[in-house]
Amino acid sequence: MEAPLSDSSCSEPILISTKEAARLLGLSTSTLEKWRFYRVEDAPPVVRIGRACRYRLSDIRAWAEDHL
Known about the structure:
This protein has three helices and three strands; from the N terminus they run βααββα. The chain is of the alpha+beta class.
């Protein structure tokens, strides 16, 4: 398993996986995957690196504050 990318000034990851984002938001991974597939406008923004989809931790926190 790859280590998440992190900022050198802190130990918190910058990018997190769909599984980690779903856990933080209290959603299922399939919900986030469906939102990506159907390009739901109000979904948390996703970062694509090749075929991998990651979420910025700061985006997940901001989205959670606005929507939960």
